[in-house]
Write a structure and sequence with these properties.
The complex is a heterodimer. Chain A has 3 domains: about 5-195, Reverse transcriptase/Diguanylate cyclase domain (Alpha-Beta Plaits); about 215-340, 2-Layer Sandwich (Dna Ligase, domain 1), CATH 3.30.1490; about 390-465, no CATH class. Chain A contains 13 helices and 18 strands. Chain A has helices at about 15-20, 25-30, 55-65, 95-105, 120-125, 140-145, 155-165, 170-175, 180-185, 185-195, 225-245, 280-290, 330-345, and strands at about 45, 70-75, 80, 110-115, 215-225, 250-260, 265-275, 300-310, 350-355, 365, 390-400, 400, 405, 415, 420-425, 430-440, 445-450, 460-465. In chain A, helix 5 (about 120-125) packs across helix 10 and helix 9 (about 180-185) packs across helix 10 (about 185-195). Chain B has one domain: P-loop containing nucleotide triphosphate hydrolases (Rossmann fold). Chain B is built from 6 helices and 11 strands. Classes of the chains: A alpha+beta, B alpha/beta. At the A-B interface, helix 13, strand 9 and strand 11 of A face helix 3, strand 5, helix 4, strand 6 and helix 5 of B.
Chain lengths: ~475, ~200
């Protein structure tokens, strides 16, 4: 037993001098001590006396994850944050304290907040209402000494017996001999004191928020128009944003359901061009989408369910305006695609690409909207073909024929030799056509063809523009 | 005053003298005769221009294509968007004219003016072309502001009858097919007036 080898030692030396006194004995003891100096932990302990629900503590823990990844719950009313690595972001303890109190304030909570090198010390000081800021273990015992024993939350019997022995503060209990304390008051209590002073290291379970986001909100009164629904959705979307931000995730698709009294729920699926987490951005798109939806009945409740969660690439603001000096345009193009699709439907915007086919109808295809370009452009050489019109009619338009010549707003003047396009026998959509460049009486140049097969009809297929 | 050293010093691009008009950022149109007539020596780099045509196919696209080809081939070129075109732009012909197809997007025909304003103001496009039948003067002013905000060259094609209406567009011109080429009449623009004949559009 480690405690037995140091029978005469106090539980924690009150000052440096006593460490030297017993340094010979201390060296023989193998202990896992919390590290000192750089790399040492610094814990912020939050005591929340006015906490209503356990849900609120979890909500606060999610907010706290914006300050540090190491957050630990101490139900029912405590929260611990390891903040050594975050200090420089808030220019020290004072800045971090202000930020934490503000975060609690946004949930309507007023915390008692203490900083100490061990988690238990931070929590105990906060419970005792003493908002200490102790950064090193050397000063810890001095700061803890005047605190009442009740802050340790031991069982009433233990506290009562200590009180009868004249021990009322943490400082007094730390001066008691180790072996005697363990025998008379319990080994668990001794272990608590070791964790309090950092003699043994306390390992705390990190808080892990639930990974699923599914919210339902009942409306206070049935909504008949879009405006109140959008206001409610804005609140849900802000929750979604908080949920996504701590995980560095974004949504690609979002399912919103509007529930009615009798009619089947109205479903509205929002598809985004790039993973997004910004509540205002999503709310704007949702407003566009909802404005196209007719409500069959007043809405009683809302549901929000993100379908696809993807890692969010953190937006790096370019120094340059989009497009100049090679500034990126990804954000602008995604915003544009989403806005057009939300108002005009999914097919609102498309790109163009070439296909390897001689038939004009099959030589191009619609494609997904172009992505932002990286690096310089290298294009395949233009296909070797005769002159092609800039406009193509999706369906060739039959032309009136008089005396063997095609007419459109008057007689057409054929300007070129015929170019024969004969292709596609293998897939049933074969064409055999003679294409001509023609000009009408207004000077508009047209691309017309005559079918080689009977009845040798003339068609307009393109305009040169 | 005729000191050549002083004259050279004053040519320094950082020196701006009050009597010279503000430098306009322009884009060569690819036609020397047209560049000479356009204010600043080319198409404006941002802002709205109106091209009035008696009918589709009067040479209005051939007039723009050299400039569009230059725009889409830039190292970090933004998009070139066609809003509500009357027919489908024919991809092989665009490529043959030197346009980089991976910069071209086509926006469907419903609510063309709203879509055009979104496209112009988004900042995602180098140029945007739109075909609209009857935009109100108020709409055109909004489009002009959106084009300046998004630093985009907006081109609005309108029927020739619109020449009688006033317009907030920075530049207005009228195109008519003549022979193998076209006749361009400048209707409005800073100091731009006159008629330019382009005898032929290339091959």
């Amino acid at each position: 037993m480690t405690a037995l080898s140091r029978t005469a030692l106090p539980i924690a030396p009150a000052a440096r001098a006593s460490v030297h006194e017993h340094s010979g004995a201390a060296l023989t003891v193998v202990r896992q001590e919390a590290p000192e100096g750089v790399g040492a932990e610094l814990w912020a302990g939050l005591h929340l006396p006015k906490l209503m629900h356990a849900r609120q503590l979890k909500q606060l823990a999610r907010l706290a994850q914006g300050f540090t990844p190491r957050v630990s719950l101490e139900p029912p009313d405590g929260l611990l944050l390891e903040v050594r690595g975050s200090l420089h972001l808030f220019s020290g303890v004072a800045g971090l304290r202000v930020a934490l109190v503000q975060a609690c304030g946004s949930l309507g909570l007023q915390p008692l907040l203490a900083f100490a090198p061990t988690p238990l010390a931070a929590l105990v000081a906060a419970r005792a209402g003493k908002e200490i800021e102790v950064l090193t273990r050397a000063q810890l015992i001095g700061a803890l000494a005047p605190l009442p024993l009740s802050a340790l939350r031991w069982s009433p019997q233990v506290v009562e017996r200590l009180k009868r022995a004249g021990v009322r503060t943490i400082g007094a209990v730390l001066r008691l001999p180790r072996a005697g304390f363990a025998r008379r008051f319990g080994a668990a209590e001794l272990a608590t004191l070791d964790k309090l002073t950092g003699t043994t290291r306390e390992l705390r379970a990190a808080f892990k928020p639930p990974e699923r986001f599914h919210r339902r909100r009942e409306l206070n009164c049935e909504a008949e128009s879009h405006a109140p629904i959008l206001i409610e959705f804005a609140g849900l979307l802000r929750e979604l944003e908080d949920f996504l931000k701590v995980r560095q995730l974004g949504v690609m698709a979002l399912e919103c359901r509007l529930l009615h009294r009798q009619a089947a729920a109205t479903c509205c699926v929002l598809n985004l061009a790039a993973p997004a987490a910004d509540a205002r951005h999503i709310a704007g798109l949702l407003a566009e989408k909802l404005s196209r939806i007719e409500l069959p009945q007043p809405v009683r409740a809302l549901e929000l369910r993100p379908a696809t969660l993807l890692p969010l690439s953190l937006a790096v603001r370019s120094l340059w305006q989009p497009g100049e000096h090679g500034g990126g345009t990804e954000n602008e193009t995604h915003t544009l695609i989403e806005r057009l699709r939300a108002r005009l439907g999914e097919a609102a915007i498309h790109g163009l690409r070439l296909l390897d086919d001689h038939r004009p109808e099959n030589s191009w295809a619609r494609s997904a909207p172009p992505a932002a370009r990286a690096g310089t452009h290298q294009q395949a050489p233009a296909p070797a073909a005769g002159r092609r019109p800039l406009w193509l009619l999706l369906v060739p338009q039959p032309l009136e024929v008089r005396a063997g010549f095609p007419r459109r707003r008057g007689v057409l003047e054929l300007l070129s030799e015929p170019e024969r396009i004969e292709s596609g026998w293998w897939d049933g959509a074969d064409i055999v056509r003679d294409y001509y460049l023609a000009r009408d009486r207004y000077g508009v140049r047209l691309w017309v063809f005559r079918e080689r097969s009977a009845p040798h009809g003339w068609f307009l297929h393109g305009i040169f523009g | 005053m005729d000191d050549p050293k002083l004259a050279r010093l004053l040519e320094h691009p950082a020196i701006w003298r009050g009597r010279s008009s503000a430098r306009l950022e322009v884009l060569p149109s690819g036609f020397a005769a047209l560049d000479a007539a356009l204010p600043g020596g080319g198409w404006p780099r941002s802002g709205l221009i109106e091209i009035l045509i008696p009918r589709f196919g009067s040479g209005e696209l051939s007039l723009l294509l050299p400039a569009l080809a230059t725009l889409t081939r830039g190292a970090s070129a933004r998009w070139c968007v066609w809003v509500a075109p009357p027919f489908m732009p024919f991809a092989p012909a665009l490529v043959a004219q030197g346009i980089a197809l991976d910069r071209v997007a086509v926006v469907g025909g419903e609510r063309p003016l709203w879509a055009f304003e979104q496209v112009l103001g988004s900042g995602a496009c180098e140029a945007a072309l739109a075909w609209a039948r009857k935009p109100a003067p108020r709409d055109i002013r909004r489009l002009q502001l959106a084009a300046e905000r998004g630093r985009t060259l907006g081109v609005l094609f309108r029927p020739r009858s619109a020449a009688r209406e006033t317009s907030a567009a920075a530049l207005r011109l009228c195109v008519a097919a003549v022979g193998n080429g076209a006749e361009v009449t400048l209707l409005k623009g800073r100091g731009a007036r006159g008629v330019v004949r382009l005898p032929s559009f290339g091959s």
